[in-house]
Amino acid sequence: MDKTAETRPEFAIRYPNLASAGLGASIVSVTDDFFAEAPRMLADDEAVFYPDRYDDNGKWMDGWESRRKRVLGHDHAVVALAAPTKIRGFDVDTSHFTGNYPPACSIEACTLPSGAAPDENTEWQTIVPISPLGPSAHHYIAHEGDGVWTHLRLHIYPDGGVARLRVYGTAQPSAFGADDELDLASLINGARIVAYSDAHYGNYHRMLTPTKSISMGDGWETHRRREPGNEWIIIALATAGRVERVVVDTAFYKGNCPVSCTIDAACLPDELAAGPDADQLLVTSSMYWKPLLADHKLTPDHEHTFTDMLHSDAVTHLRVNIHPDGGVARFKAFGRKA
After folding, report:
1. What are the φ/ψ torsions at residue 136 (nearest 5 degrees)?
2. Average pLDDT of the residues in 217-233
3. Are 167 and 193 part of one and the same domain?
4. Given 109, 141, 171, which residue is the final one in a domain?
5. Is 176 a domain residue?
6. Do 126 and 208 sit in the same domain of this protein?
7. What is the distance between the alpha carbons of residues 337 and 118, in angstroms, rounded to a whole number?
8. Strand locations in 49-206, DSSP E?
9. Is 313 found in the same domain as 200?
10. Which of 70, 47, 66 is nearest to 58 (CA)?
11. pLDDT reading at 4 higher than 50
């Protein structure tokens, strides 16, 4: 669990990080990463510090770090996002960089066709002007633009280290064909977590990633429930669709696997799902949603596939209920666009 969750801005809690290496984001180019290789900046886990770790180039740091600039100019790194993204905010994290952090940064963005990489002809647009940075801190920067971006260029002035770059938003993939089977609950396709009853452990956004889980901390896990009832999580699907099968993966959850699960579903109008109080309205209305999957027993450390949907109506949201508590590493809802 991120212990700083209560102090993070709303965008960093509500939206997933699309600059995640675990989702497929990558470094395209970097001017200099002499001290610490730029791909570390996209790691999913929190940056760590080892006081006595050194390598051939000097102090080992968890993030991207350039050498001290001895000429005019500044350093930058180009990042390919995991998917075309409508950005809601950034975290430029300088954790553990105390005497070697950049005093400032700016961010540019561009949109390119699938498979293309930026070159000297690429037109970049500044979406974060030059902004101050401080030592060993999270620097949250909100973004309200409607652009959809595939690549970012992070400038640091003039040099130094960035532990993590996180880019919060929603994926905006190409249009889905009516006959294409897709994972309606995938972050890469534009789904997101709306709300949950509890997410004490792990990283709940990871539950909707297309990759395999790597540990018990790589998924949604609740605390031990000490009162009647059950835990739940609500998912806004990538598009309205008809769910044909679901996958509930309890990988690594052995002594903390839920006993069973059920799924409720609803097809909600855009105005309800996008209003200023939408998330709270969804939580309230979810108590009356139509059952989609009946109660099914879950087995520890196992990938379960269920195809016996209770109806084939078009739906936009799912409420996954686990009984009574525990962990789910991955959840997928395969179907077709309605």
Report:
1. 45, 60
2. 97
3. no
4. 171
5. no
6. no
7. 32
8. 54-55, 58-59, 64-65, 75-93, 104-110, 125-132, 138-142, 148-157, 161-162, 164-171, 181-183, 192-196, 201-202
9. yes
10. 66
11. no
Q: What is the pLDDT of residues 62-104, one digit of tens each?
A: 999 999 999 999 999 999 999 999 999 999 999 999 999 999 9
**pLDDT > 90? residue 271:** no
| CATH number of residue 295's parent domain | 2.60.120.260
Number of domains forming the structure of the chain: 2
pLDDT above 70 for 3: no
Question: What's the residue count for the chain?
Answer: 338
- pLDDT at residue 5 is higher than 60: no
Contact 106, 131 (CB under 8 A): yes
Residues 6+ apart with CB under 8 A from 258: 231, 250, 298, 322, 323, 324, 325, 326, 327, 328
End position of a domain, from candidates 171, 198, 224: 171
Domain of 115, in residue numbers = 5-171
- Over residues 45-64, mean pLDDT: 96
Find out whether the peptide bond into 158 is cis, omega within 30 degrees of 0: yes
- Structure-token pair, residue 169: 């938003």
pLDDT of residue 196 exceeding 70: yes
Same domain, 124 and 206: no
